[in-house]
Amino acid sequence: MRVTAGKFKGRVLEQNKFDHIRPTADMVKQAIFNKIAFLVPGARVLDLFCGTGALGIEALSRGADEVVFVDKDFRSVALTRQNLAKLGVQAQVVKSDYLNALKYFKGLGKTFDIILLDPPYQSGVYQSCLEAICEYQLLEKGGMIVCEQSKDLSFDFSLFNLESEKIYGIKKVVYLTRKD
User: Fold this and answer.
1) Is residue 50 scored above 90 in pLDDT?
2) How many domains does the chain have?
């Protein structure tokens, strides 16, 4: 697992040693960030269900101003902190379940230009997560949600505009924007 582009390009991240974390393959990560490259410089990014932190770190490497990393599992939070420290990067890492974290950001009046959404595929949280993001108005106008999911999963995207989707093996990446 490595950073694919930007100022940390080629840097190797700590290896995932936990079965509960399913990191995004480098090829898929590169495809995602090539697709959203126009949004990344200067962006405020939320890496929700951050796992190793690799997606958010990729955003930082490519010029995002701020990335907030969220995961409820202490092992994921520790691994994300290790990866950030390895690169000498300071960032906010929040140990919390997604709903409490989203409520917290709403209370702060915080919005994001990019929300990276990659929960465990069979977690059943996709719909409630999208509903909370919409209800709490956390996605900035002109922003994008990048949602990784199993290619076999389907749920209601009607709260957002479905910009595109792409299948990579067993994974589907969906790109959503605000309805304004």
Assistant:
1) yes
2) 1
